[in-house]
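Q: Can I see a sequence and its folded structure?
A: Here is a first one.
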Amino acid sequence: MVTSSSRRTRLLLIQCRRLALAVLCLHLLQNCRARHGELSAVAMTFPDQAMELSPDEASAVYEVFEAVNNEVLWRHEYPTNLCVEGPHGLVCAADEQNILHVVELNIGWVSEANNNVKCGPHAAISPALTRFPFLRKLFFYSCFISDEVMLPSFLWRLGSSVEELVFLRNEKLVGGLSGAIANLTNLKRVIFADNMAFGGAIPEQLGLLSGLEQLVLSRNDHIGELPRSFNMLKRLRVLDLSWNSLQGAIPSSVLNSMEMLQKLDLSHNNLSSTIPDSISKASSLQLIDLSWNNLSGPLPDASLGKLVHLRVLQLSYNSFQGSSLPTAMWTRLGRVMAIGIAQSGLVGKIPESLGKVKRLRSLNLSANQLEGPIPGSLEDLHSIFEMDLSGNRLQGLFPFSAGFIQRMGSNLKVGNNDGLCRRPGQLLNVSFPLEYYISSAHMGGSTLAGPLPECSALELAQSNYHEALPSSSQHGAITYDTSEAATAVWISIMTRMLPCALATLSYLVVVTP
């Protein structure tokens, strides 16, 4: 018989074995890291009390903090145990001798914590940053917003341990990236964004950072062309150069080797020429935003159709004058959730194949020169949340049912298409006063001059339309009175189509069975 004491003993033995295995694994990991000159422990929030920060690094921490805010008595506020009791944003780790080293410096607003390293009005960047031999991440958020601060050249001497370099929302940061950034050979993330005075040309030497995974240089003041050396960034997952003043073509060679790229955002620049066919080589792309440029030429139907992981395609506000919408690629892009190609000079018809993009939630084709009918297949987009087809030359029978229109509400915009018409007697929302819902402000985002007209006999013939209900005063389950005294119609079954004679009524009352 197994006693409770023996059970406890067995459980203790199991726990001891697990602990021994964990210690062995940690020991092997430490030895492995020690052989490679790396730290033996990572990002300890509460290191052992016996551990101490390297004295030189402790002094350097104070110097860095004093440079960003000389109104705080840092040495008095945090006299000892900087890694344990220091401000939020300072992260340490231990080496194999249990000496602590600074591995992260996050300066500015980092979180909701009260003890962030807040920057003062005269913040500066201290050369003491070069005294952290194990520094992996340097982060400045909204620090340099009063006095101009030049990005110092000593940053490129931080050492090969640095993996992340981040400067966000520093309005007074001036200068630009130097080609010497290639000295930081292990960089994985380079993010300089929302630094409005920071700019210049993007250095070709960035292409030498073969381990780079994220390159974000958005909302700065960069000029010049896209470096062709980017074709060496084979591990890149995010390339965001949006909101700058870049010009020239998108080099075809740049995309040839970016098989891991997931996000490509070059929007709000002055890029020209065509979208290269080599975009198909970036086969992992999930987001493409090339809007607000001067791109021209036909849209590469075959190439875009190969991007089977694509979720977002934004090409609005370009110069695709005379180009038509692709037709074949939509059947292969079943994961796309947002399509925007507004105000880009598109001509021709909206393809029926757009109705195959079953996960589509947002479609914006407004302010082009599209013509022909609205494909009825668009109502098959059961996930659609907003659709803007306004400001084109669309014509023919308006295809959507009352249920679809009511579900879309103000997110359905088809205004400023003079050739559109409705079915005879079509009342598009019987729960509202007797007005045509489609003729309201929901059509184009502004008031519309008059209701959508009824289709003529010729237009109906061209649409192969046949009236579903006769205009008799009583038919089946629907009863109505066309006299002037009639003020209400009682309907036993909700329908999408009501006879033309009901257009003289002032309002409807709906009664469910």
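Q: Show me another, different protein.
A: A second, unrelated one:
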Amino acid sequence: MISGVIDLIFFFDHFVTGTCALYSPYARMIAPTTPTLWLGGVYFFGFWCAYSLDLLALYISINRFFMILFPIKAKLIFEQTFYYTMAFMACLAAAPAWFHIISLAYFTLISNEYTNNIPIAVFTNVPIKGYEKTATNNSVIILVVVSSATFAMNLMTFGGIMYKIRGHTIKKTEIKMAIYSVFLFLSQQSYTCLFYTGYFGGSFPDLSISYFAKVIKPWAYVIFCLTPAVSLMCLSKNVRSIVLEFVKGRKIGSSQMGTTQIKTIKETIIAPSRRLNQV
């Protein structure tokens, strides 16, 4: 739920400040602007969402590992510490880029041979004196540490699954949720790699690499945001049933009229809730 909300917010933020900025008509509408503090908040929020999603992927991988090996104790501990952990992760995601909140950000227009001399908008900020390289350094550190930890936890999770399979004590639900964790990790890493290729590519002799990454990044981001929803639909029978019932109800509503039909739609949509953690 939390990951889905952040996905939606991040998608809107990225769509407005990144994807649409690549289209000349929209770019001319939003750029150039003068540096402002509220745009600095938007700039910071993009970093916060990215860090939060990476930390959530790590949290999910840790959860899967302990739920497989110690299901009863792990469930109790994770339930008791959930809100505290989420609050801590929210603060932790803000820590590496806190200075962006008080920095000024703005949109500017650029046009060169790599954009076919068509103007595009770029969302950037005015770094605070003394913090010019801090954001880049922090991003690299977080990418390496969190990605390595998530990768290691996913490997340990599948090691735990193999151990449980030998004793015939593993449930299909746990295997599928572990696969879900891996899908989430891979989608995030594919986007992150493109993001940093474009980010650091500005220092390459051939800037075409940087601009290519910027063009591909919006499409990678769509995959990044849709992966959790698509993975759950593929792996969870209950989720598929709920979605199909909802779609079926909408079709009934568009093709039939009257009180009886409206009542049927409501009964279809407001069906008895199912446990989403059962796959």
